[in-house]
Every structure is written in C-alpha cells, then in structure tokens.
Amino acid sequence: MFRVGPSVRLSVQFRRALATHASPPTAPPTRHAWTKQEIQDIYDSPLLDLVFRAASVHRQYHDPSKIQLCTLMNIKTGGCSEDCSYCSQSSRYATPTKASRLVDIEPVLEAARKAKANGSTRFCMGAAWRDLSGRKRGFERILTMVREIRGMGMEVCTTLGMLSPEQARQLKEAGLTAYNHNLDTSREYYPEVITTRSYDDRLETIAAVRDAGISVCSGGILGLGETDKDRVGLIWEVANMPEHPESFPVNALVPIKGTPLENNEPVPYQTILRTISTARIVLPATIIRLAAGRQTLDETQQAMCFMAGANAVFTGEQMLTTPCSPWDEDKAMMARWGLEGMRSFEQPGVARKEGDRLHAQSETEVAAAPETSTSQPSA
C-alpha cells in the first residue's frame, strides 16, 4: 500500500489553505503610506462605529470563525542586560523572576508536543537575551529546537533579542516561521521605556528577519504610560513598513513587583478595543494577537475583541513570566462563540513564505520513496 508521508500531507494542506482561505477578490490591496492623522482619525471615531468598520474589514481579509492558537515557552529566563521598564527578566531590577540557563532540547520538544495535542498550531520560544553575541552553542541548540518542532508540522516562532542578517538566515534555514520583535510603543515615547537599545536597533532586526524570508511578528504593549497619540504612532510605524507584519501582538501591561512600572494603572478596556480595531483597519491582512493581559478580560470582552478583528491568542500554561488562559478554558469559550482554531500555515502570507519549503520537502520525500506498482498481480 502506498503511504503518503507527513511532508506530503503538509504540502497538500498548504495548497488547500491557499485555495480556500486566500483573500477574497473584493479585498483591496493593503496600503503602506498612511499618515498619522489618518490613523488618529480612525482611532478617535465613535467606538461602536469603529468596531463595526473593523469587523467589516476583518471579514474581507479573514475567515471570522478562525482563531490562531499559539503557545509560548520561556526557554531562558531572566538575567537580561536590557532595562525594559516593564520586564521582570531584566537583571537591573529586583523581581521574583530568577535567572536560569537555556533549557535542554527534550523538555522543549515535549512542551511542543503537548501544545500540539491541545490544539495549538504555533509554538513560540522566548529567551531573555539582548542578542546572540557569544552564544554560539546556545544558538545551535535553538536551531535544533526549531528544526525538530517544524518537523512536527507546527509553525515555529522565536524571540531572542537582536539578530544579525546571518543569524536570521540560519533561523530561516532551520525552518523558523516567524520572529517576534516588538516595537513596544511609538518612536517618541520609546526612550521613556527602554534606554539600552534604540528604536532603530529594533527596526534593523525586523529588516533582517524580513529580508531572510521569515514572517515578522511585531506589536506593542498598552499601559506603559503612553498616550493615544503613542498608540497611533506604533500602528503608523508598522503600517508604513515595506511589508506589513505577519502578526501584530496587542499586549496589556501586567505590572510586576520590582519593575519601574509596578504601580501603573490597568489599561482601560476601551483602549484595548480601540487599538485592536484601528490596527485591523490599517493592517487588514495581518494576524492580530491578543497577548499578555488577556486573562484580565472577561469572556464577553474577549468576544468583542474577536468581533473587531483579533484572530490569535496565546493559550496554555503560562506566558513568559505572566499568567495565560489554559487550553481547556479557551477551547470551551471558542465553542460557545462558534470559533475554531486555524490550521498550521493557514494564513495566506505565511503559506506563501513556506511554499517553496513545503514543496521541496514533499518532492524530496516522493523521490526518496520506493517505487510502488499499482497494477494487479496476474492470476
């Protein structure tokens, strides 16, 4: 009996995704020349009108019943030399987070298997580093993790600090789907949050990732003390990139004791909803991910975010250092609202970037398979 290998099945899945989930013919092309005033006007529009407009745009570019389920694992905790004022992993602050070494390969693979078994299709790994300088052996271990998890048929994302073009190339060759590197806030407000690296440093890493053919995941954090103008500035920055990010995470600050922002007030829900709605209109083909702080929203608040265009969540046991909604609760919630999980590589932008790799894998497997006769044996 002729058996189809996993890579062949993944390739068929990829082609089916393109055939059934491509952007509708009525969807206009994405814009890359927004002005700040245009985005500000959208952000400031009456909230229900804004949500309705965002929901309409969302349905032009996405299947509104699909939510991408992502699981995040901290593979190297604490001890970071950066001074990000929201982060408990900075070595500059006295926080409950303790520094640890890079995790071994097998526990990471086991976590990825568990995530896949629970319905997650993207596995994300975070390491608390400024960059990869002097971490050759650690980087090689991470490349192995990427290859192994990609071999499970999952999308793979990492966040490892700043990258060089060569490091981005190696991650792409290993099978990395996406790289997370948040801009956090507007260029103007950024120095109030971080001083150990510049906004342009972040943009250079994003460019290296994009040039390597890896999908860019870049968004921000609400509740840092920024204004509406800064939230608009963040969206404007990514909207005018040569290629919109594949995904735009919207994080609500979870204040952590010992960090400079430990006493910040919770960001109002309407601010989260306005940001998601505006991002959906300006970045129509991008995945918008409800990320840190989602557990503070009740079910109806989350449903309104999904209506406005959020179509990805982190689910599982924990974020990097903050709580996460567990799989069973999320799946039950989604069932109540008629939502279901995306397949791996279902998003057209990701599928296009993965296309050559998937086809090459399937062709290699078919070529390596023994010839199988389909004729019936003679009597």
UniProtKB/TrEMBL annotation:
<dbReference type="InterPro" id="IPR010722">
    <property type="entry name" value="BATS_dom"/>
</dbReference>
<dbReference type="Pfam" id="PF06968">
    <property type="entry name" value="BATS"/>
</dbReference>
<keyword id="KW-0004">4Fe-4S</keyword>
<comment type="similarity">
    <text>Belongs to the radical SAM superfamily. Biotin synthase family.</text>
</comment>
<keyword id="KW-0808">Transferase</keyword>
<dbReference type="GO" id="GO:0004076">
    <property type="term" value="F:biotin synthase activity"/>
</dbReference>
<dbReference type="InterPro" id="IPR002684">
    <property type="entry name" value="Biotin_synth/BioAB"/>
</dbReference>
<feature type="binding site">
    <location>
        <position position="289"/>
    </location>
    <ligand>
        <name>[2Fe-2S] cluster</name>
    </ligand>
</feature>
<feature type="region of interest" description="Disordered">
    <location>
        <begin position="345"/>
        <end position="379"/>
    </location>
</feature>
<dbReference type="InterPro" id="IPR007197">
    <property type="entry name" value="rSAM"/>
</dbReference>
<dbReference type="InterPro" id="IPR058240">
    <property type="entry name" value="rSAM_sf"/>
</dbReference>
<dbReference type="GO" id="GO:0009102">
    <property type="term" value="P:biotin biosynthetic process"/>
</dbReference>
<dbReference type="InterPro" id="IPR013785">
    <property type="entry name" value="Aldolase_TIM"/>
</dbReference>
<keyword id="KW-0408">Iron</keyword>
<dbReference type="Pfam" id="PF04055">
    <property type="entry name" value="Radical_SAM"/>
</dbReference>
<protein>
    <recommendedName>
        <fullName>biotin synthase</fullName>
        <ecNumber>2.8.1.6</ecNumber>
    </recommendedName>
</protein>
<dbReference type="GO" id="GO:0005739">
    <property type="term" value="C:mitochondrion"/>
</dbReference>
<feature type="binding site">
    <location>
        <position position="217"/>
    </location>
    <ligand>
        <name>[2Fe-2S] cluster</name>
    </ligand>
</feature>
<keyword id="KW-0093">Biotin biosynthesis</keyword>
<keyword id="KW-0479">Metal-binding</keyword>
<feature type="binding site">
    <location>
        <position position="84"/>
    </location>
    <ligand>
        <name>[4Fe-4S] cluster</name>
    </ligand>
</feature>
<feature type="domain" description="Radical SAM core">
    <location>
        <begin position="62"/>
        <end position="294"/>
    </location>
</feature>
<feature type="binding site">
    <location>
        <position position="157"/>
    </location>
    <ligand>
        <name>[2Fe-2S] cluster</name>
    </ligand>
</feature>
<comment type="pathway">
    <text>Cofactor biosynthesis; biotin biosynthesis; biotin from 7,8-diaminononanoate: step 2/2.</text>
</comment>
<feature type="compositionally biased region" description="Basic and acidic residues">
    <location>
        <begin position="351"/>
        <end position="362"/>
    </location>
</feature>
<dbReference type="InterPro" id="IPR006638">
    <property type="entry name" value="Elp3/MiaA/NifB-like_rSAM"/>
</dbReference>
<feature type="binding site">
    <location>
        <position position="124"/>
    </location>
    <ligand>
        <name>[2Fe-2S] cluster</name>
    </ligand>
</feature>
<dbReference type="GO" id="GO:0051537">
    <property type="term" value="F:2 iron, 2 sulfur cluster binding"/>
</dbReference>
<feature type="binding site">
    <location>
        <position position="87"/>
    </location>
    <ligand>
        <name>[4Fe-4S] cluster</name>
    </ligand>
</feature>
<dbReference type="GO" id="GO:0046872">
    <property type="term" value="F:metal ion binding"/>
</dbReference>
<dbReference type="InterPro" id="IPR024177">
    <property type="entry name" value="Biotin_synthase"/>
</dbReference>
<keyword id="KW-0411">Iron-sulfur</keyword>
<dbReference type="GO" id="GO:0051539">
    <property type="term" value="F:4 iron, 4 sulfur cluster binding"/>
</dbReference>
<feature type="binding site">
    <location>
        <position position="80"/>
    </location>
    <ligand>
        <name>[4Fe-4S] cluster</name>
    </ligand>
</feature>
<keyword id="KW-0949">S-adenosyl-L-methionine</keyword>
<keyword id="KW-0001">2Fe-2S</keyword>
